[in-house]
Amino acid sequence: MPHTIAVAGKGGVGKTTTCGMIIDYLCKKENGPVLVVDADANSNLNEVLGVEVETSLGAIREEMANAELKGTIPKGMTKAEYAEFKFNSALIEDDDFDMLVMGRTQGKGCYCYVNGVLKSQVDKYAKNYSYIVMDNEAGLEHVARGTLPKVDTMLLISDCSRRGIQAAARVAEMIDEMELMAPLRPVVRAATEEDKQILIYFSLLHDIGRDSEDEDDTHGDKSVELIRKKNIRIKGIQLSKKGYRIAKLLIRHHCRDDETGIGRVTKVPNFTSRDIVRAHKLYCIAKDMDGLDRVRFNGLDFRQLRTPYARRLPLVAGGLLEEPLLECIENYRAGKLEVPDGL
After folding, report:
1. In Å, what is the CA distance from 293 to each residue of 221, 236, 262, 284?
2. Residue 221: is its pLDDT beyond 80?
3. Would the pLDDT of 33 be above 90?
4. Running DSSP on this structure, what letter comes out for residue 135?
5. Of 342, 341, 8, 1, whose CA–CA distance to 157 is shortest?
6. Residue 343: is its pLDDT beyond 50?
7. How far apart are CA 33 and CA 128, in angstroms?
């Protein structure tokens, strides 16, 4: 039996892009043939993979309905034989993988028939593949309907938005309730030592360009410019060229809204897919670090924090206000605190 991988989550969070990276990885491993299933009615996985789609199961369904209505089914073929012949043509055979595209029907009504066709086609071909990768709609309909023979790995994709995280949580609950697979366990990539140093660098320098407490979505740019002009270095921080590049991206864009900021830190020339995932993750953490600082103004809404861990820290951040830390900061600003050389 093939190892099946299903990808789900809210629309627009990167499900299709994630599928593309998984498929690329599996094809490069060359551990066996891969069947790609685009189960989204608004199919565009083929564009990520660079494959031309000439037809889909939904389009064939409409073609068959018209043929039956007009009486143009070839003579000597039953309706079932004609259907089998036509649906076989929906399998796209590429050099590295094969692909089935559900597509959409043109008429009114639900997608039950096309869903059923997709399931029968997957069942027919499954035994010929080592892996099946399915890109789902913004929900779990196909997995719940049993379109895949089983699910071995489920990836729930989310962006940093509250709605995205809530959607992923609802899908996880549905999986548990329907006992579709073994209980889900979160898999979190541990931060590397350089990632930690990037965040320390960010925390020390991200606001040095701020000249007031007013809202200013350009002070990140000013901070980076100051770092460049004064050639600021932090003792003990040793980053690679890419590490410094990511750190300065976080500083430059931390003061912008999430959509703009994430777009800027993840659409960088020469960034690999691994770099993009890393920059995205560190951006979310950095934004939450900056957000937790708002306890000073009693203006923090913990529900807006992006990472589960950060949402556990407001009380800790508030507690720090009672510590001598603030006194140390004031003494430093007044020139009464000795600072180690190089800091």
Report:
1. 20, 24, 20, 15
2. yes
3. yes
4. E
5. 8
6. no
7. 8
Partners of 35 in the beta sheet?
98, 132
User: For the residues of 310-333, what is the DSSP string, one character each?
Assistant: GGG-HHHHHHHTTSTHHHHHHHHH
Q: Closest Cα to residue 13, out of 111, 181, 143, 155?
A: 155
Task: Provide the pLDDT confidence category of residue 327 given band limits of 50, 70 and 90.
Answer: low
- The DSSP line for 149-187 is S--SEEEEE--SSHHHHHHHHHHHHHHHHHT-SSPP---
Q: End-to-end CA distance of the chain, in Å? A: 58
Sorted by sequence, the CB contacts under 8 Å of residue 210 that are 6+ apart come out as 216, 219, 222, 223
Where do the domains of the chain lie? 3-178, 193-333
Amino acid at 105: T
Task: Render pLDDT for 13-29 as a digit per residue (tens, 0 to 9).
Answer: 788 888 888 999 999 88
Taking the C-alpha atoms of residue 263 and residue 151, their distance in angstroms, rounded to an integer, is 32
Instruction: Tell me the fold of 3-178.
Output: Rossmann fold (3.40.50)
State the Cα–Cα distance between residues 250 and 240, nearest whole angstrom. Answer: 15
Q: How confident is the model at residue 132, as a pLDDT?
A: 92
Across the range 263-273, mean pLDDT stands at: 87
> Residue 92 — pLDDT band, cuts 50, 70, 90?
confident
Does residue 342 register a pLDDT over 60?
no
**Amino acid at site 240:** S
